[in-house]
Amino acid sequence: MGNKTTPEIFSLWLEQNKKRFNHKPIFLRKKKKFVEYFFENINPMLKLIIYTEGYNEGEIDVVVNFKQEWFDIIFNEDMIIMQNQIGLYYCELCEPDYVKFYKNKEDLLAEHSFEEMLIWANKNFVLSNILRLCEYLEYDNEQKSYFVGMTSGEIISKEKAESEDNKTVNSSTTRAIKISTHDFPVIIEG
Length: 190
Prior knowledge:
Layout: H1 6-17, E1 25-30, E2 34-39, E3 46-51, E4 60-66, E5 69-77, E6 81-83, E7 89-91, H2 105-124, E8 129-140, E9 145-157, H3 158-163, E10 168-170, E11 175-185
Antiparallel strand pairs: 1-2, 2-3, 3-4, 4-5, 6-7, 8-9, 8-11, 10-11
Helix pairs in contact: 1-2
């Protein structure tokens, strides 16, 4: 495979495409297994994660960092980068009928991941949306007790947020009760 890592390819792509973002990603820091960005004038709890190596190479996420922990992933573009016998790149996770081949890793990442994230960010990072975070109590049938379990984060319209009320989620093994909801603005006026 190519010599450049996904974060290096993203950095070059971003330099050419940053004007297409309503709120461009800005480099924050490099960690061992990923590179982290924040979005200009967007709630700092939202971080763009570009994975550097191993099984996650090619994957990008937008995560919610709440109370100094990764609370939820609200955008995910999974990818397993493969190269066929004649040197063309493709994503192994794509359904066989939808596999597309690329002459290089840069083109695969740009079309498969980076463009999708750009479209998602421009659609969701608008004044009419909020970041809603919820925490749930789950009931463990075996232990006969509740525990703080599931968390969820999503970007939703302010209208939808106002119309929703507390909901109970049921499954065969657990019953979850929403115990807290936190609403935050998506766009932070800068």
